[in-house]
Amino acid sequence: MIDFLRGQVAYVETEYIVLDVQGVGYRVFCPNPYVFPAKGQDAITVYIHHHVREDAQLLFGFPTREEQRLFRKLIEVSGIGPRVALGILSGGNPDGVIAAIHNENIAFLTKLPGIGKKTAQRMILDLKDKLEGLGGATLFNPISADVSELDDVNVTPGWPEAREALKALGYTDAELDRVWAKLKDQLKPDEEVDSLMKKALKLLYAG
Q1: What is the Cα–Cα distance from 56 to 197, expressed in whole angstroms?
Q2: Where do the record's region annotations for Domain III lie (predicted)?
Q3: What does the pLDDT read at residue 201?
Q4: What is the 3-state secondary structure (H, E, C) of 18-66?
């Protein structure tokens, strides 16, 4: 089974990257493809989950081993397949997801793509004691805010959550303010967090 690939990015699409590894192009589905460097830059390492089913073999890729491990924990939960797990990681930064599980924050978890109340409860039950060693400082800071605090009535509701996830990836407030100024007039009122993330990352990636 493939655990990681090292090569150059050949293409970046909205759902995946194509990684050129010694002349072979691997299609790798990612939570946020635009976090990876542009085509033709130095070789990178992508941590892989190699998913095998009867009709296909799929590669899911992550910039860190921690995200890879969290993805693998998520797909152990009944009702969460690889596509839903990918949506979880695109809709909320890993530390935030881990903290929400540890603090039994169902309100936060049900804001993630594809997660209803019952699935959120299963995530907490199945994973709360299995995430030791994953996550950073956020893990030790309970998420006490109500979901309504994530929604600013003056902006698209999902943007505050998307912004926090982008900050966790290392982007500055100034960069995110510039991106929001470009994005805000192009969005639907009910734009999903994962869609916001992808559109913002595309702008950040383009400079």
Answers
A1: 28
A2: 148-207
A3: 87
A4: EEEECCEEEEEECCCHHHCCCCCCCCEEEEEEEEEECCEEEEEEECCHH
Distance of alpha carbon 90 from alpha carbon 34, whole angstroms? 11
For β-strands 44-53 and 4-12, DSSP reports them as: antiparallel
More confident residue, 17 or 204: 17
Q: Decide: 25 and 8 in contact? Cβ < 8 Å.
A: no
Alpha carbons 28 and 8: distance in angstroms, whole number: 12
Residues in the chain: 207
How confident is the model at residue 132, as a pLDDT? 74
How much is the pTM? 0.65
- The alpha carbon of residue 82 and the mean position of all alpha carbons in its chain are separated, in whole angstroms, by 12
Distance of alpha carbon 5 from alpha carbon 25, whole angstroms: 11
Q: Domains of the chain by range and CATH?
A: 4-62 (2.40.50.140), 65-140 (1.10.150.20), 151-206 (1.10.8)
The pLDDT-based confidence of 92 (bands split at 50, 70, 90) is low
C-alpha distances (whole Å) from 48 to each of 4, 14, 38, 91, 200 are: 5, 18, 19, 19, 24
pLDDT > 70 fraction of the chain, expressed in percent and rounded: 86
